Every structure is written in C-alpha cells, then in structure tokens.
Amino acid sequence: MKYFKMCLSKYATFQGRARRSEFWFFQLFYMIFSIGLQVIASILAVVSGSEGVAAFFGILLIAFYLALFLPSLSVLVRRLHDTDRSGWFVFISFIPLVGTIILLIWLCSEGTQGDNRFGSDPKLVS
Fold it and tell me: Where are the transmembrane segments (predicted)?
C-alpha cells in the first residue's frame, strides 16, 4: 500500500526513476481496487435489479480509471527510466504481441545500477 500511496503522491511526475517494487505494487493494488469495484457493482446491480445502480457504478468505475490514468502512466514512464529507456518506449506496446512482450520484459528487468541519465538509483535513495 505504501507504493500505491507513493505513486498517487507523484500524480503526474514523469521525471526520475521507479523501482520494480514501486511499479508492480502499484499495479497490484490498482487491480485489487478495480476488481473489487467491479464485483461490488455487479452484486449490487443484481441484488437491486435496478439499472440505475448499475449505471451509477459504471460511472464510478469510469471515474476511478480516469483518476488513476496519469499516476499509472507516470509510474510506467519512471519504471522505463530506471532501465535507462525513454518514456516514449511506452508506444512500443502498440506493436501487436511482440511490443507488449518486449515492454513486459523491460518492466520486469532490473534497473541500471547507480546513476543514469534520468536520475539517481532509487535503491540507494530509499
């Protein structure tokens, strides 16, 4: 939860570097909250039988995704910076299948040790 809060505090900070743990814990809690909201929305929509409740939670989910779009993009860019790659490499994921696999490998790989052109090593700072 510490890393999720850290990413929210760096809401739209695209400079610097993010450790693997910061990126993956943010993704984990993002998915937990997302799935939790979807399950609650589905249960309440079925129990109430009302389309209004389903619509309300649909709007709530859209607001959740929009609110967390910038933090998730910024932590992704900072994670790429940690591997000494430009944030523009996010667009490699638009290449079908191969781009997504390459991006995933980069996100799972260890960051460069010591300082790089994007800042100091986050392992040494924290």
Answer: 23-47, 53-76, 88-107
